[in-house]
């Protein structure tokens, strides 16, 4: 049995689905944030798998995909820091991290 | 990488990913996420992306998760008390998730090119100058985006300081 690109894409898709289900089902804003990270990482896995599958002209992996993953990781780290600062500010204003208690914008 | 190791680490990663979603205690969720990220780093290494694997461990499993745990500690979150589940929302979420997974598997089956094995690399394992190659690409072809990301990180730092000030106006 050989590992093919399809196996990596399947694992990546399942990881994305797990993160997606967490965003839909959980009500704690920090857990939702962690599930967003899972989804970003699933995208990274399929990018790296494609980069290894489609070799560049010199026979090495296609490094464009890995550079994109590098940028995704950098932006995600910045996003986590800003997002957690917003959560802390929200907690100071409302004393809750439950999305059901934060409904001022609901009609 | 042998198929056994691939499936072992994939199942480890997906299993701990599921634990992130189902745990009621935020700290347990965060620690499961660390293990899930470590499994993902192993998969990156199995794809000969050593540099990405290392920064996955350093940035995600290290820095980002410490930040998460620090915020959980700061907010003093307890395990969630059992709130009444909205059965309609639960059924809707499960339906959307399952149909998404089904759609994804269907799409993957219609991609026949991907059933081939990964092509071999021209260099031996352990002789690939992975960091060198990524660095060359980053500082030649992608120099401008790299500088822009630097500005983005600076803006994020300033934003956090502004957000964390005592009085938000």
Task: Chart the SSEs and their pairings.
The complex is a heterodimer of chains A (107) and B (169).
Chain A: H1 5-25, H2 29-53, H3 63-94
Chain B: H1 3-22, H2 26-46, H3 50-75, H4 87-109, H5 130-139, H6 143-163
Structure description:
- The complex is a heterodimer of chains A (107) and B (169).
- Chain A is 73% helix and 0% strand.
- By secondary structure, chain A is an all-alpha fold.
- The longest helix of chain A is centred in the last third of the chain and has 32 residues, at 63-94.
- Chain A is elongated and about 55 Å long.
- The N and C termini of chain A lie far apart (55 Å).
- Chain B is mainly α.
- Chain B is 72% helix and 0% strand.
- Chain B has helices spanning 3-22, 26-46, 50-75, 87-109, 130-139, 143-163.
- Chain B is globular.
- Chains A and B meet through helix 1, helix 2 and helix 3 of A and helix 1, helix 2, helix 3, helix 4 and helix 5 of B.
Quaternary state, please?
heterodimer
Number of strands of chain A: 0
Ranges of chain A where pLDDT stays below 50 over 5 or more residues in a row are none
**What summary fits the major beta sheet of chain A?**
none
Task: Report strand % of chain A.
Answer: under 5%
Structural class of chain B: mainly alpha
């Amino acid at each position: 049995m050989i590992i093919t690109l399809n196996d990596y894409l399947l694992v990546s898709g399942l990881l994305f689905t797990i993160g997606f289900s967490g965003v839909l089902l959980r009500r704690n804003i920090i857990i939702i944030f962690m599930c967003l990270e899972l989804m970003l990482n699933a995208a990274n896995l399929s990018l790296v798998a494609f980069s290894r599958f489609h070799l560049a002209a010199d026979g090495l992996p296609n490094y464009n995909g890995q550079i994109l993953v590098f940028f995704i990781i950098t932006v995600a780290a910045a996003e986590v820091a800003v997002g957690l600062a917003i959560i802390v500010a929200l907690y100071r204003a409302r004393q809750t991290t439950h999305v059901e208690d934060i409904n001022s914008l609901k009609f | 990488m042998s198929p056994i190791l691939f499936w072992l680490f994939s199942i480890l990663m997906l299993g701990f990913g599921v634990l992130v979603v189902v745990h009621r205690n935020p700290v347990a969720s965060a620690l499961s996420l660390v293990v899930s990220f470590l499994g993902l780093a192993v998969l990156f290494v199995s794809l000969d992306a050593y540099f990405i694997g290392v920064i996955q461990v350093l940035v995600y499993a290290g820095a980002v998760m410490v930040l998460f745990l620090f915020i959980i500690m700061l907010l003093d979150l307890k395990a969630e008390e059992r709130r009444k589940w909205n059965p309609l929302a639960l059924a809707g979420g499960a339906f959307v998730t399952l149909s998404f997974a089904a759609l994804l598997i269907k799409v993957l089956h219609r991609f026949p090119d991907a059933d081939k094995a990964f092509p071999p690399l021209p260099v031996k394992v352990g002789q690939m100058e992975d960091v060198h190659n990524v660095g060359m690409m980053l500082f030649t072809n992608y120099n401008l985006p790299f500088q822009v990301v630097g500005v983005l990180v600076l803006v994020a730092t300033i934003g956090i300081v502004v957000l964390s000030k005592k009085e938000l106006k």
